[in-house]
Design goal:
Helix content is 34%, strand content 34%. It is an alpha+beta fold. The protein has a domain at 20-63. The protein has a three-stranded antiparallel sheet, with no helix packed on it. Strand 2 and strand 3 (52-55) form a beta hairpin. The relative contact order is 0.18. It binds zinc ion (ZN).
Length: 70
């Protein structure tokens, strides 16, 4: 049986890896007003940062940080 403290450490490490994948980068995409332009910061993994950027923090990071409002 695993030690619960080790499981907590593994979980923190996994969340850090998720944050590494979903980090803020400059990007371009469609703006809330329907125009097209810079979205900074945008997520490095969600969408396509150079074309269809997703604003950062993206839904994944909001869940990781416990700020998901759904
Ligand atoms: Zn993301």
């Amino acid at each position: 049986m695993s030690d619960p403290i080790d499981l907590a450490a593994i979980r923190v490490d996994q969340l850090d890896r998720v944050r590494d994948l979903h980090r803020p980068v400059p990007g371009q995409g469609y703006l809330p007003d329907g125009g097209y332009g810079d979205i900074a910061p945008s997520c490095s993994s969600c969408g396509t940062p150079g074309e269809y950027a997703v604003p950062w923090p993206c839904p994944t990071i909001r869940v990781v940080d416990g700020k998901d409002d759904q």
